[in-house]
Amino acid sequence: MGTNPKINVEVTLSERICTSVAVALIIATFISALHTYLHVPAQVPIHFDLNNKPDRWGSSLTIFLLPLVSLILFIPIYLIGKKPHLHNYPIAVTESNAKQLYQLSRLLVAVMNAEIALTFAVITLEIGVFMAGETFGMWPVVVCIALVIATPIVFIMQMRRKG
């Protein structure tokens, strides 16, 4: 760590869009949590089994934990994205490939931040929908988790091709 070239890399439009989407999702998650909080009893489901049945209940205030965790995760991930020379890479970083690798790495971090925010938004929304007597099922959460797992793989493959 610290041996990669330290160069200035411009923020791309894609990175800005992903960061904006992440911020919007975090705000929407807080709004969804507030809406749920105002319309539910004192006890809400805080954990679901694989059949999407609640297996743990807690105070309705716990609905705010998900957006809070989403925000707490967003901040350091966002800041880490600003220092691509400190990131780990699957290939050697040189002066000739640094700009491309750094742009990919910054975009990876921004996409991951948006996907993490989306995952927390979907879970928060599902709790509110469940409390209203409906459900999306587990598929939206499974898809979000699959995205969070697949995204780094795709970006690592792109980085290897750039090298």
TrEMBL record:
Residues annotated as transmembrane: 21-40, 60-80, 107-132, 138-157
Cross-referenced Pfam families: DUF1648
Top-level taxon of the source organism: Bacteria
Domain DUF1648: 25-70
InterPro entries assigned: DUF1648
The entry's keywords: Membrane, Transmembrane, Transmembrane helix
Protein name: DUF1648 domain-containing protein
Organism of origin: Tigheibacillus jepli
Lineage: Bacteria, Bacillati, Bacillota, Bacilli, Bacillales
